[in-house]
Design a protein that fits this description.
Elements: H1 2-12, H2 22-41, H3 48-68, H4 71-82, H5 91-101
Helix pairs in contact: 2-3, 2-5, 3-4, 3-5, 4-5
Length: 121
């Protein structure tokens, strides 16, 4: 049963690549927008919405990780869904744009992991 589930995921959700083609980017962006809309839709149900966020947070995090291969954005998506009042942030869409254009390299405090600064003499 589990292997069937993962075979289904491999067909529906493409694994991350270094730079997606335009068609693959558009497909992933549409899925990312749907993930963000579902996360934002919990605002439609005051009180119940936060309870639904507890269920949606790990699902959203898994989908973001599966689509973009980023544990950073998966963690941000998880926290964004769990913390009240942050559901308006389109984390999956930002992760998709980051995969295409590498926006994290332009933001100093979002640097790339263990990269050490170059030593200048």
């Amino acid at each position: 049963m589990t292997s069937l589930f993962y075979k289904f995921l491999d067909k529906v959700l493409p694994r991350p690549t270094n730079r997606p083609s335009n068609g693959e980017f558009f497909f992933k962006f549409l899925i990312a927008v749907v993930i963000d809309i579902v996360g934002f839709a919990t605002y439609l149900f005051p009180g119940i919405g936060e309870a639904v966020d507890i269920v949606w947070a790990p699902i959203s995090s898994f989908l973001i990780y599966r689509l973009f291969g980023s544990s950073f954005f998966a963690g941000v998506g998880f926290l964004e869904e769990l913390l009240p009042g942050l559901d308006f942030i389109p984390t999956a869409s930002i992760a998709c744009i980051n995969e295409k254009y590498d926006i994290r390299s332009f933001i100093p405090f979002f640097g790339r992991g263990n990269r050490r600064p170059s030593s200048r003499r």
